[in-house]
Design brief:
Layout (H helix, E strand, L loop, with lengths): L1 H16 L8 H21 L4 H6 L2 E26 L2 E28 L2 H8 L2 E4 L6 E2 L4 H4 L6 E26 L11
């Protein structure tokens, strides 16, 4: 068991160390943008009420593909795009560490909505961390109608693939990098 844990921790360290927040090639940026648009479409299909968050939020971050894996100790990594008033303003990545009863692996999608400018600015400043108490709403029909902002943000998650048994504690850490490519990309509402 200790050997499996050691291998898992080393693999996660290698993955996290080699990941850049900003896709370096234009092709990679285009792929990420396509994945973001697909993720938004999936969230809207699963729960059309989520449109209200796109309409009223000052900004949002979309992480279209986050991988989470664990054997007692776990981690997750994903990257995405950040929008302010519907316009793409930068990139973000998320790293998560967990400890507890967890086994398996899964891919999920995550959208974080920010209620106003100060909440988005806090996310964009240095590195932003969610505590273990920050919870996401599973994207299902009608869930967005009942959801509201907590501490200036609303988080929605939908599982893509995988199987995970998880009763662990952890937090998510985000890094933001402004759009250095000055592309005017907007998400289709």
């Amino acid at each position: 068991m200790n050997a499996k844990l050691t291998v898992l921790v080393l693999c996660m360290a290698i993955v996290f160390a080699g990941c850049s927040t900003v896709p370096e090639r234009g092709e990679s940026r285009n792929v990420l943008s396509a994945q973001v648009n697909e993720a938004v479409a999936i969230f809207k299909e699963k729960d059309p009420e989520i449109k209200q968050f796109f309409d009223k939020s000052y900004g949002y971050a979309v992480l279209p593909k986050v991988f989470k894996g664990a054997i007692w100790v776990g981690g997750a990594y994903g990257k995405g795009e950040v929008y302010e008033k519907g316009r793409m303003v930068g990139y973000c990545d998320m790293k998560q560490a967990t400890l507890g009863f967890s086994f398996g692996g899964e891919y999920f999608r995550e959208i974080i909505f920010f209620s106003d400018k100060s909440d988005l600015d806090a996310f964009k400043a240095e590195e932003y961390t969610f505590s273990a108490q920050a919870t996401g709403v599973a994207a299902t029909a009608g869930a967005a109608a009942k959801a509201d902002y907590k501490s200036g943000m609303a988080v929605f998650i939908t599982t893509d693939k995988g199987l995970m048994v998880d009763a662990s504690l952890g937090g998510q850490k985000f890094k933001y990098v402004g759009n250095i490519f000055l592309e005017d990309t907007t998400i289709k509402k």
